[in-house]
Amino acid sequence: MNGKHTIILTITCPDTVGIVAAVSGFLSEHDAFITEAAQYGDPFSKRFFMRCVFVPGALAPSVDELEKRFSLIAQRFQMIWRMHDGDQKARVVILVSKFGHCLNDLLHRYHTGSLPIEIPAVISNHSEMRSLVEWNEIPYHYLPVNKADKTAQERALMALLDDLDPDLVVLARYMQILSPELCAQLSGHCINIHHSFLPSFKGAKPYHQAHTRGVKLIGATAHYVTTDLDEGPIIDQAVERVDHKHTPDDLVAMGRDIENVVLSRAVRYHIEHRVLMNGGKTVVFK
Amino acid sequence: MNGKHTIILTITCPDTVGIVAAVSGFLSEHDAFITEAAQYGDPFSKRFFMRCVFVPGALAPSVDELEKRFSLIAQRFQMIWRMHDGDQKARVVILVSKFGHCLNDLLHRYHTGSLPIEIPAVISNHSEMRSLVEWNEIPYHYLPVNKADKTAQERALMALLDDLDPDLVVLARYMQILSPELCAQLSGHCINIHHSFLPSFKGAKPYHQAHTRGVKLIGATAHYVTTDLDEGPIIDQAVERVDHKHTPDDLVAMGRDIENVVLSRAVRYHIEHRVLMNGGKTVVFK
Amino acid sequence: MNGKHTIILTITCPDTVGIVAAVSGFLSEHDAFITEAAQYGDPFSKRFFMRCVFVPGALAPSVDELEKRFSLIAQRFQMIWRMHDGDQKARVVILVSKFGHCLNDLLHRYHTGSLPIEIPAVISNHSEMRSLVEWNEIPYHYLPVNKADKTAQERALMALLDDLDPDLVVLARYMQILSPELCAQLSGHCINIHHSFLPSFKGAKPYHQAHTRGVKLIGATAHYVTTDLDEGPIIDQAVERVDHKHTPDDLVAMGRDIENVVLSRAVRYHIEHRVLMNGGKTVVFK
Amino acid sequence: MNGKHTIILTITCPDTVGIVAAVSGFLSEHDAFITEAAQYGDPFSKRFFMRCVFVPGALAPSVDELEKRFSLIAQRFQMIWRMHDGDQKARVVILVSKFGHCLNDLLHRYHTGSLPIEIPAVISNHSEMRSLVEWNEIPYHYLPVNKADKTAQERALMALLDDLDPDLVVLARYMQILSPELCAQLSGHCINIHHSFLPSFKGAKPYHQAHTRGVKLIGATAHYVTTDLDEGPIIDQAVERVDHKHTPDDLVAMGRDIENVVLSRAVRYHIEHRVLMNGGKTVVFK
User: Do D25 and A27 touch (CB under 8 A)?
Assistant: First the structure.
């Protein structure tokens, strides 16, 4: 990382007077030009959240030096903070089962550069997506689940993820429930797409549940994975209008478009460091 | 009702061959011009639903005669059916508590004629809305709830509704739970607006529940009242995008606009006889 | 086509009494079970539109015989009509230039069977999409445009389309203006996706126009191609919210998702014979 | 204004390094607690925009003194700026003709306190809305237009507005075209609701234009009034889905709900000082 790189600074800390002044004063003194900034103080949790994008100028010190100096301010305000290299592509590992629409959508955005990520691997408990993935010149790891010993597959998965060391894991319609251990290990950097408007219709076959209940809108929800199934912090949601004529299969088909859009938005927000955790909720600086 | 009136025919029956032919043949033979028609066969419940708007021509018999003759067809197909006078304004009684936005919205639509209804009365357990209602020259019935004996108020309410004999009762943010008896009595002609996107956030303070969960869309649901609280057949729903900045009060304020639109649409669908019941769900011929 | 096939009957004719009765009576008499039907009488153009899906029963005659007998009714009502084989996949030729998102989206829907079509060819004035298309085992025709003689390319294109004889041509971000002759030849079976909410921002670079004007929503429009550029009958549209922060490049990126959804919906409506022409407008029986 | 009042600081200036640092440093030094802040640097116009809400603490000087001291910073950065009293209700004058839905909506929000404004007067070229306005205890000024001398009415209107000295003038379906002089006089503090999704369907009868064109979505646009009819900076827009069945009258009726929501949002953004002008566009800090 050199002085020309864009840097994205994210901060969470107790809310108090003077945080913005301290941060922006620090950046100004170190010849950093702010190109984007957003902050939010939660009146309920009394936490403060900030995201600040800046370009170090000719007189700015190295990023290492910047970080070292900033740590004094960070200490004063008890900040959880990080300076991310804005030009470094995030390493995103995608997990998928048999439904390939979200995978295909993410691969297309990756392929055309519209989503600036690296995909070191796609992992699946099925083999169906191999050809698509390999056409994109991405390694495909087939880890089938043996129903008699599901934990064996997950151990292999965890070992593989350890090796790959991704910045983000995306469950792109991966139809296996992760163990609490794996959920904990991936905490804060694993996004799932659930095919309903949460908290409605948790669990299996949400479109069928929606059909049975007779709702007039269906939706999809991208959220961080936690040990509580379908209860993690929500990043984005969207809905589409349906009516009595639609069968569960119609809802499944219509839902795919919503899932694609919601999941790819959530991935974008995450890799651009726009999402900060606020207890069981998210702050998303769009 | 004379021959010039528009008639709205609604039909529900077991699905089979020849229903549309029989109905449209009957109308054609009796010089009735169909201006609007919609039908739906539910592959799950095997029920058939039809709504047909027609104008009797010069050679058509009286409506009484039409009904008499049609009953033969109806019998053959085991129809639940009715011919509604399309020019007869529905009698709509509105129940309200302290939040007046839905009431104000409905009254404005009534006042300007955009919603072709009569409002023989507004009933409330509070007095706040009296002035607004009486400015619209509508009788206001104040039925306060005595917490020691809630049933007294409901007995008075039931008696009043018996007297008024409305086609539709609208719970426009009426914050009292109706007894199973009253729910049963009003079955199929009582619409409630629930201030959440059902089935999420049933019960009290849904906007606060939504805030706590951190959803990214909030919604409102208009549904028929049944003895199962917030579980009745859904007529319409809508949502609005929210984000982390919104407090519960913001959600309440934003939700009002959604509630207005959803409730008034549901009322319109009902009074135009566009809603047919399909078990715990609705068929809505928009 | 045998008796087991689903048949989709589409009808356009002057509005008058008895059309539905005649059609449904005919189907009933010929042992055809209607599974879906929709009709509309336009009070302005005085035209009647009908779409009727039916399954011939055991006693039904052959489709040829059905058509022959139906032509008597058709003649009586001056119908423009057709019985389409509902199980026959439409032959769809896709034209594309350098932006591959709509192509990729359509190919994925084709590949997974969610869009029941055949794609005998993809044609492009560029070579970029060859690999993607050939991975899908579809012939790719590269017809580059020589700026000195644009008509040569179009002659080749017309000859190729003549050979392929498609049911539908889709301009999936094909950035060449078709000649009036080709527009006329493709009239009614060529769909274009325009990357704005028409009639706003016709012509080139609509997202840049939208940015300059400062609109708060951007959109996309799928329409039939006519000789009037971007003036053809609209099939579907959708929009997405934007704000002051979005650059033209952001709008282009966001717009892709809208274009995908709108174009694929329009293609689906067309191949399911849900779109009927009403002068310069469409009737879409969803 | 005393130290306890919330203050909303708005700033527009050329973009450069150090603005946020200077502003937030100033506020921090003067014991002001920032509760909300948003900024934006336009890479095209090279202008910087900021909105900052703060509460002066116990040690803060008077607002007059704050303003005096801040003017030094303002001068350095060539700021167009203002400190608004966040607890001062804006004085909003509403102009209306015969369609009362937007007026009714705004009055209801005013009446219930959901829109914290004062309405010193409603002005109309018709008398229809007098009763509604006076029920809300607001003076109603009836200024009929004499077609032979339209300027007489406008002179009276201008004199009245001079007297009333409003912070904002809202054209809530006021169907008269303002003269260039009046537009200039009201520049930046007069909001119009146009009943189309601009720039589509400028001018008269936009819903009829939309029906003729056969669009699949209709919309409404709130914008600042300029001398160019329907060309002023857009504050907010929204749309609703329509289809072939809708007559122009249906579109008018459906459009009312969109107009209400869009206009009331634009008014809220304006009175909360969330809208800054960026050439012919707006920056809206939601």
Answer: no
Span A222-234, mean pLDDT? 93
pLDDT tens readout for residues B100-159: 999 999 999 999 999 999 999 999 999 999 999 999 999 999 999 998 888 999 999 999
Residue type (1 letter), B131: S
CB D156 within 8 A of CB D82: no
CB contacts of A215 in chain B (<8 Å) are 198-199, 234, 237
- Residue type, position D273, single letter: H
C-alpha distance from A117 to closest chain B C-alpha (Å): 25
pTM: 0.95
Report H helices in chain A: 19-29, 63-76, 101-111, 130-135, 150-164, 180-185, 206-213, 248-271
Residue B178, pLDDT above cutoff 80: yes
Q: Are C110 and C137 in contact (CB under 8 A)?
A: no
**Closest approach of B196 to chain C, Cα-based (Å):** 22
Tokens 């077991």 correspond to: B14
Residue D94: pLDDT band by 50, 70, 90 thresholds?
very high
- Judged by CB atoms closer than 8 Å, whether chains meet at A28 and D39 is answered as no
The residues of B whose Cβ lies within 8 A of any Cβ of D are: 100-101, 104-105, 108, 112, 114, 135, 253, 256-257, 260-261, 264
Provide the residue type at B99 as one letter: F
Check pLDDT > 70 for residue C276.
yes
Q: Confidence band (pLDDT; 50, 70, 90) for B1?
A: very low
Is the pLDDT score of C251 beyond 50? Answer: yes
| Cβ pairs C/D, distance under 8 A | 85
Q: Which two tokens stand for residue C153?
A: 């390319």
Side-chain-facing half-sphere of B266: CA atoms under 13 Å: 33
Per-residue pLDDT of B204-229, as tens digits, reads 899 999 999 999 999 999 999 999 88
Q: Contact C158/C185 with Cβ under 8 angstroms?
A: yes
The span from the CA of D274 to the CA of D286, in Å, is: 7
In whole angstroms, give the CA distance from residue D248 to residue D245. Answer: 10
**Pairwise CA distance, residues D118 & D88, whole Å:** 10
Provide, as residue numbers in chain A, all residues whose Cβ is less than 8 Å from the Cβ of D50. none
Contact C257 A256 (CB under 8 A): no
Rg of the Cα trace of chain B? 21
If you write DSSP's letter for every residue of B130-143 in order, what string do you get? HHHHHHTT--EEE-
Residue A121 is encoded by which pair of tokens?
Answer: 């691997």
The helix (run of H) or strand (run of E) holding residue D153 is helix D150-164
Which H or E element spans position A136? Answer: none
Query: CB-based contacts of D52: which residues, under 8 Å, 6+ apart?
Result: D8, D9, D10, D11, D23, D24, D27, D34, D36, D37, D38
